[in-house]
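Quick one, T. Sequence first:
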Amino acid sequence: MNAPPPVPPPSDIVPLDSEVPAESSRYKLITIILGSMLGVALVCFCIWFFLPKSQPTVVEKPVVVVPDTRLAEYIKGKRFTWLLPKESVPEQLRETAIGQQIASQPVFVQFNTNNVVQFGTMMNGRAVAMEKGTYTSEDLTITLNKSGGTDTAVATKAEPAEGDELSVTDAQGKEINLSIMKVEPAAPLQTAGAAALAGLGLGGGTGAMPAGSLEALAGLLPTAGSTSSGKGEVKGDKDTGGGYPQSNTTGQRTEWTFGVGSKDLAKWKGQSARNVIGVFGQPDVAKSTPDGGGEWQYNNVKITDAQGKLHRTVTFSVMNGNVEFVRLRPALPK
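Structure tokens:
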């Protein structure tokens, strides 16, 4: 039989209840705690990431719109000139010589520095006032207030110049586009009567054309083939730049001569028909003639002929926009 193995001495046997060193246990405990904290942090992050979040409240500042005043400053003290477009001439006059003359007539708007606006045209090389009012401007829109109503003009830029356009809507809602011919400084204007008399070499005078807006020139001439009474049709207020009744015009107040003297009506032959309108206003009676012209009669005029005889009626025969004849004769039938 084999002998049993030897039993080790008691000093070499490790006791079963021997403890793990204290340092190793401390490291394990720290590792467990850190791992637990990391797990909790990871769970919290996931919950925060996937839960819906409320949007932060944004307080918007109010937007302050500052009007563009460049156009308002630019137009002050300036005069803008253009030609009347064809559509601004009354349809019944467009194919006539008078209508063509109106369409080729330069007109202007003058913006004075005191917010007064003046409408006018050129006559005998002189700038003539036809109407006036007031104006305001905001951004690219100009508002024109006058006795006939309110017009608005819209510019394409803050400093419109030659070749630029203005879109104008009158008080009746009619819209026309005007191409600027010239921009120049504002200057004093004359009355139509003074300009017409100066063109005839008769010196200064006073008077005004009938009222109107950008289409005022078209309203100065009676329609071909019509009979009209100037006193009944031409109205206005002297203080607002409107027209005068025929009895208050320069033609009515002036003491004329015929065939003699410095204020000889016979010398009006060849003059522009608009000079007649400018001095005498609308005729008392206007009739067409078979040759396509017209006769404009003015009553209650003071005229002394070469023999010293007093006359009260003068008739201007008009053809192609000019005076063909001037006659002293009995009044035309109405």
